[in-house]
Amino acid sequence: MARAGPPFLDTRGIIFLAILIAAAVLVPVMALAMPPGSFFHMPVYLVALFGKYLCFALLALALDLVWGYCGVLSLGHGAFFALGGYAMGMYLMRQIGSRGVYGNPDLPDFMVFLNWKELPWTWWGFSSFPYAMMMVLLLPGVLAFAFGWFAFRSRVTGVYLSIITQAMTYALLLAFFRNDMGFGGNNGLTDFKDILGFSVQAGSTRAALFSLSALMLAGSYLIARAITVSKFGKVLIAIRDAESRTRFIGYRVETYKLAVFVVSAMMAGAAGALYVPQVGIINPGEFSTTNSIEAVIWVAVGGRGTLVGAALGAVVVNFAKTWFTGVLPEFWLFALGLIFILVTLFLPKGIVGTMSQWTSRERRRAGGAPAAAE
């Protein structure tokens, strides 16, 4: 009798989705319906901060899909995140219209300042929200497809693949720093006014963006979970554990890698698009290789190959970053490195992976069936 695979939603996944849905409902209520003096009132700045954490959680989830289940350690997912952010930022800039400093309805302020006479072709269509949202997914997806097509067909793996993903991100960083690219240069895009006619500074808009971020994270988890528990997901795990053997038995390894890499990049782009209106700016610094490396640390801390752990790791590490940079900002990078070292030594499976391991041992000791592997 064939052994049954893991259920589509295990207890951990159900709890994760329940928390996200509850947060999507309760946080806006606490921010908008509760009076400012109430214990249950949540200030608008906290809503935006927690929304930012959810965007980072979505980025970590996307990275875990390719690293935790396919063994592709990408140090360039920050590029996909930033491209999605720029697509959203370009839409938001086009909504400013004549309300900019220079009052030009056709050109963003930085283009007027640089004496640009007409809108570059790369900006065409970004006054349309559906077009911008299509670009949020299409730009990271096309870049991931082009990069993955050449890298995976050339059978670049391991540390070499990680290095070239990092090189790709750094090349984009340098390109976007140039003013003649038409993306704001070093200053990037900022001073946003509206999104779909609603002020981005309004508390109701902030609450709506938070809820949308929570629901997007929940939906992306369901997509990632559906991939990983399917036959496609089993092949991904086989590629992660024994790529040569998987290729030898007849699977087109490059096709599987490319498909999951593109899906992951599109998720990262969606995370960047939700991030920009909540923080109010997007600049080339988002392409920094440091950001991509931090995302890897989030996944490692939470638990590689667990999905939920990746999202949890992003929230935990960024909460620690918020606290630490407020107390000892100059030592944050040292603290981040220490966290990574300690997790590697004492929690090699991350927070969620270690907890699952402990739970399985207790069940075996109690005589019960072992927990199904993620």
Could you give a quick summary of the protein structure above?
This protein has 374 residues and is an all-alpha fold. It has one domain.
Describe the protein in words.
By secondary structure, the chain is mostly helical. The chain has one domain (15-366). 68% of the residues lie in helices and 2% in strands. It is built from 14 helices and four strands. It has helices at residues 11-32, 44-70, 77-94, 109-113, 129-153, 158-177, 203-229, 231-241, 243-248, 253-279, 289-302, 308-327, 332-346, 350-366, and strands at residues 189-190, 194-195, 198-199, 281-282. The strands form two sheets. Strands 1-4 form a two-stranded antiparallel sheet. A two-stranded antiparallel ribbon has the order 2-3.
